[in-house]
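Late entry, zinc ion complex.
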Amino acid sequence: MALLEVLYFPDNRLRKKAVPFETVDENCRTLAGDMLETMYDGQGIGLAATQVNIQKRLVVIDLSPEKNEPIYLINPEILSSEGTEESREGCLSVPEYYDFVTRAERITYSYQDLEGEYIESETDGLLAICIQHEIDHLNGKLFIDYLSPMKRQRLRKKLEKQERFQTNIL
Ligand code: ZN
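Prediction complete; structure with ligand written out below:
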């Protein structure tokens, strides 16, 4: 397994739309393993391929405290949703920024597993929020897009300053 480079907002490559896998093969499984390692390394609970500059529809998630219950979602899709729930989100691609986002409370979703098997399931709570956040990534959307333009502009300036600072000290 290998650590992959994570893209950070406002990198435009985070805006690319990912394409589906036609077949679930060894390349797909290797990428899934590398993404999982990258996600654990960054202390994240979810990661979409778009965040590591690969425009394929693959998401990894692990909500367990022990980090030993990985979930792999290949070609995930939300089939239906109901209710609304507000929670505070963060993102590996938007470091050290957290804000409230309103999402569907309960979702029915489909995906393929690492063997390529098609599965339909439903969930709520943190997993539902996480799946919505990650599928947004695959469509080139970030959680900060739900913020007001003014708030997002302030955040962009702040992060760009931080980047310069980091460049100076390295
Ligand atoms: Zn994210």
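Residues 91-93, 133, 137 surround zinc ion (CB under 6 Å). Will revisit in the morning.
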